[in-house]
Design brief:
Blueprint lengths: L19 E2 L9 E8 L3 E11 L6 E3 L7 E2 L2 E2 L7 H7 E3 L4 H5 L1 E4 L2 E5 L1 E3 L4 E3 L1 E8 L2 E2 L1 E2 L4 E8 L7 E8 L34 E2 L2 E2 L5 E2 L7 E2 L3 E3 L2 E8 L2 E7 L7 E3 L20 E3 L10 E2 L4 E2 L4 E9 L8 E10 L2 E4 L16 H11 L4 H4 L2 H11 L1 E9 L6 H4 L25 H7 L4 E11 L7
Parallel strand pairs: 1-7, 2-32, 26-27
Antiparallel strand pairs: 2-3, 3-12, 4-7, 5-6, 8-9, 9-32, 10-11, 12-13, 12-31, 14-31, 15-28, 15-32, 16-22, 16-31, 17-18, 19-20, 21-24, 22-23, 23-25, 28-29, 29-30
Protein name: Glucanase
InterPro entries: ConA-like_dom_sf (IPR013320), Glyco_hydro_7 (IPR001722), Glyco_hydro_7_sf (IPR037019)
GO molecular function: cellulase activity
């Protein structure tokens, strides 16, 4: 996810994660159909499903129901060290709708912000698309396009309805790490370009070393390790702003990091991943009338988002050179907005030239170019990436990096600072959760395939 801090913070009450498999509740993945398309032969439906990330699941002893983690603190007797904790603790199946507010019907998936379950109150969620009951669906998208519909009319300031790809292992690390007995079926193996260190189990071991409970999130904390991999943010948005962002890393699979490699704090630009990424946000790039409530792309109703991954020779083996964006709404194809920033060319897609120009104009370090730029992103796309769908609020920066003016210590007139219409006082998680608990996002009609095959001109 694209923001200017290392910590990705997700909130959930009394619901946590682990690596063994519990027996308190059977795990039944909600079905979600997608379509694979080809030029000349149309689209074929594929039966897939989604699995909830392990970080949200109840973590308890393998022999009973005692919590291994409560609030934002580990049980020291059950989790004295990473391996013992993984051996002592199990994660269970979940009630997707009743506990987590996750519902699916046909090709549509809805994620709700606040869900009051029978034993806990849940905030947000993160799910992965499954090829089968034990394996994540892998997408190889070079010289391909990826399309979906989104309804975020019920998604106000401070929230992020995100759809993105990360370079996770197809089995969630099950085969690599002996202490991981749960695997993809139970949502293990997460990584992204922020190298998040709030993930409770990494590489099959509990992240208990140097664990520090969060000062402003009663359910989260950070440990010694982070988990890193390249990330392609297809969609990070609420009904006020949206961005798509490529993040690349010098590592080429899910990798546990520590120290400066994680890029935390002052080491932000010394880590293995490009945390800033190269982003295209219409509002940030100077077209403030393009996307939003009542604008050209009207976020008050559903629309289609098309993302095309163009290679130098128009083959699936060529070098990635461009990421294009197209919208479709009310039967009308809407080409992406153009850059309207003084001294910048009127770009309308992500290329290495655009990224370099943006970084120079905004005065930002070019960590994207330093880690290989689009060519590196193409390597991840060739290898295969996992689709992630999530809804979250931001305990670190109140989502201002997405939908407001950010950073706060710079003038709004500085190029790149204005990112959306939301007030700089908006997005405080406690306010968002109490004032807009029924907020939700619906993703539907996911399609992928040949360029030009997934939508109608």
């Amino acid at each position: 996810m694209h923001h200017l801090v290392a910590l990705l913070s997700f909130s959930v009450l009394t619901v946590v994660c682990g690596q063994q498999v519990g027996t308190q509740m059977a795990e039944t993945h909600p079905n979600l159909s997608i379509q694979k398309c080809a030029t000349g032969s149309g689209c074929q439906i594929q039966s897939t499903s989604v699995a909830l990330d392990a970080n949200w699941r109840w973590l308890h002893t393998t022999s009973g129901t005692t919590n291994c983690y409560t609030g934002n603190t580990w049980d020291a007797s059950l989790c004295p060290d990473p391996v013992t904790c993984a051996e002592n603790c199990a994660l269970d199946g979940v009630d997707y709708t009743g506990t987590y507010g996750i519902t699916s019907t046909g090709s549509a998936l809805t994620l709700k912000l606040v869900t009051h379950g029978p034993y806990s109150t849940n905030i947000g969620s993160r799910v992965y698309l499954m090829a089968n009951d034990t394996t994540y669906q892998m997408f190889n998208l070079k010289n391909q396009e990826f399309t979906f519909d989104v309804d975020m009319s019920n998604l106000p300031c401070g929230l992020n309805g995100a759809l993105y790809f990360v370079e996770m292992d197809a089995d969630g690390g099950l085969s690599k790490y002996p202490n991981n007995k749960a695997g993809a079926k139970y949502g293990t193996g997460y990584c992204d370009s922020q190298c998040p260190n709030d993930i409770k189990f990494i590489n099959g071991e509990a992240n208990v070393l140097d664990w520090v409970p969060s000062s402003n999130d009663a359910n989260s904390g950070t440990g010694m390790y982070g988990t890193c991999c390249s990330e392609m943010d297809i969609w990070e948005a609420n009904n006020n702003a949206a961005a798509y962002t490529a993040h690349v890393c010098t590592v080429h699979s899910q990798t546990r990091c520590s120290g400066s490699d994680c890029g935390d704090g002052d080491d932000r630009y010394n880590g293995v991943c490009d945390k800033d990424g190269c982003d295209f946000s219409s509002y940030r790039m100077g077209d403030t009338s393009f996307l939003g409530m009542g604008k050209t792309v009207d976020t008050s109703s559903k629309f289609t988002v098309v993302t095309q991954f163009i290679t130098a020779d128009n083959t699936t083996t060529g070098t990635l050179t461009e990421i294009r964006r197209i919208y479709v709404q009310n039967g009308k194809v809407i080409q992406n907005s153009k850059v309207n920033i003084p001294k910048m060319t009127t770009y309308d897609s992500v290329t290495d030239v655009f990224c370099n120009d943006q970084k120079t104009t905004f005065g930002d370090p070019n960590s994207f170019e330093a880690r290989g730029g689009l060519a590196t992103m193409g390597q991840a796309l060739s290898k295969g990436m996992v689709l992630v769908l999530s809804l979250w609020d931001d305990y670190a920066d109140n989502m201002l990096w997405l939908d407001s003016d950010y950073p706060l210590n710079k003038s709004i007139s500085t190029p790149g600072v204005a990112r959306g219409t939301c007030a700089t006082t908006s997005g405080v998680p406690s306010d968002v959760e109490s004032q807009n608990p029924d907020s939700s996002v619906t993703f539907s009609n996911i399609k992928f395939g040949d360029i030009g095959s997934t939508y109608t001109l």
